[in-house]
């Protein structure tokens, strides 16, 4: 009998909490906050989830986030994601949040962080979730704005464990944010960054050597650089790979082309994650199931991928 992938104990290290905003909740929050969405139904919104590239997705992602205004909105958003985690035996999470997506709309930093962390804390108390929250800078904005965002978050320093870098990768190399990452690491914050999704392998080198990241988010284009592959294998730098996301955003045309199992067998510390599950068609279990269906993932490989998630965590796991 094959391993029950839903029952498999899992950790998720690459999840944008705003990317877990399901259409049904988006419409409920829009109604609650008296916001008009440019879609007349949940079905119409779901039909818009046909992305040609990362920017197509980001345009919809930022538009959807506009329904998040109050602490209770961020609580409801996070709780809905954590309910999915509980149902899929995801016992440890290290979610990203994008404060600039909200503060640029005059939503206070405290509103964002308090709503998210209250839901995380409740899940820890209710069913034993372990977690660590990561603040991400939007790379299409300036480093100066990232510095201001870090300043605004410092009163809540105890609520997050690290900083990350996300949004549009092309044309925004990691070195653009070297000073703010140096500053964050000096405060004892962990550093992670998106690199090597649509950006070249050079961005992965920069994330490692210039930003001092301890984990690379995505990183799948490392396969184009043998020296980088050896570096990642030798140093056991975790890659938080997001299979369904990579297909929906056309990083690969079909899951059968995805290199995650080859990376695993080559000795790299790869993990499975959902990225923006409301937009990409699946949470953790669905990502594991896609690897079994299209890549022939074995039960042993599934167990190793799941264990890698716990081994790559930045804080103690449950």
TrEMBL record:
Manner of cofactor binding, per the entry note: Binds 1 zinc ion per subunit.
Positions of Zn(2+) binding: 14, 16, 194, 275
Sequence ranges assigned to domain Adenosine deaminase in this UniProt record: 10-316
Site (Important for catalytic activity): residue numbering on this chain: 218
Family matches, as InterPro entries: A_deaminase_dom, ADE, Ado/ade_deaminase, Metal_Hydrolase
Known EC number: 3.5.4.2
Cofactor(s) this protein cannot do without: Zn(2+)
Swiss-Prot/TrEMBL keywords: Hydrolase, Metal-binding, Nucleotide metabolism, Zinc
Active site positions, chain numbering: 197 (proton donor)
Binding sites annotated in the UniProt record for substrate: 276
MF annotations from Gene Ontology: hydrolase activity
Organism superkingdom: Bacteria
Catalytic activity reported: adenine + H2O + H(+) = hypoxanthine + NH4(+)
Role summary: Catalyzes the hydrolytic deamination of adenine to hypoxanthine. Plays an important role in the purine salvage pathway and in nitrogen catabolism.
Family classification: Belongs to the metallo-dependent hydrolases superfamily. Adenosine and AMP deaminases family. Adenine deaminase type 2 subfamily.
Annotated protein name in UniProt: Adenine deaminase
Taxonomic lineage from the root: Bacteria, Pseudomonadati, Pseudomonadota, Gammaproteobacteria, Pseudomonadales
């Amino acid at each position: 009998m094959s391993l029950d992938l839903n029952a498999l104990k899992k950790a998720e290290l690459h999840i944008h909490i705003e990317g877990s905003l399901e259409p049904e909740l988006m419409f409920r929050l829009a109604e609650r906050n008296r916001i008009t969405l440019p879609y007349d139904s949940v079905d119409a919104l779901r039909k818009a989830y046909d992305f040609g590239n990362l920017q197509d997705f980001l345009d919809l992602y930022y538009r959807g986030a506009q329904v998040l205004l109050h602490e209770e909105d961020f609580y409801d958003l996070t709780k809905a994601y954590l309910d999915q985690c509980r149902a899929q035996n995801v016992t440890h999470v290290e979610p990203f949040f994008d404060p600039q997506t909200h503060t640029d709309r005059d939503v206070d930093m405290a509103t964002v962080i308090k709503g998210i962390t209250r839901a995380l804390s409740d899940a820890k108390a209710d069913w034993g979730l372990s977690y660590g929250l990561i603040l991400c800078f939007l790379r299409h904005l300036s480093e100066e704005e990232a510095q201001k965002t870090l300043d605004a978050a410092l009163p809540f320093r105890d609520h997050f464990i690290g900083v990350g870098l996300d949004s549009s990768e092309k044309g925004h190399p990691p070195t653009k944010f070297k000073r703010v990452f140096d500053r964050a690491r000096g405060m004892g914050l962990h550093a992670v960054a998106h690199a090597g999704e649509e950006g070249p392998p050079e961005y992965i080198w920069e994330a490692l050597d210039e930003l001092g990241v301890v984990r690379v988010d995505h990183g799948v284009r490392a396969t184009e650089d043998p020296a980088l592959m050896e570096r990642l294998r030798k140093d056991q730098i975790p890659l938080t790979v997001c299979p369904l996301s990579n297909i929906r955003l056309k990083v690969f045309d079909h899951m059968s082309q995805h290199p995650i199992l080859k990376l695993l067998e080559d000795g790299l510390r790869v993990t499975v994650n959902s990225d923006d599950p409301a937009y990409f068609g699946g949470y953790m279990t669905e990502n594991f199931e896609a690897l079994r269906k299209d890549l022939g993932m074995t039960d042993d490989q599934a167990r190793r991928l799941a264990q890698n998630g716990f081994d790559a965590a930045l804080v103690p796991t449950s």
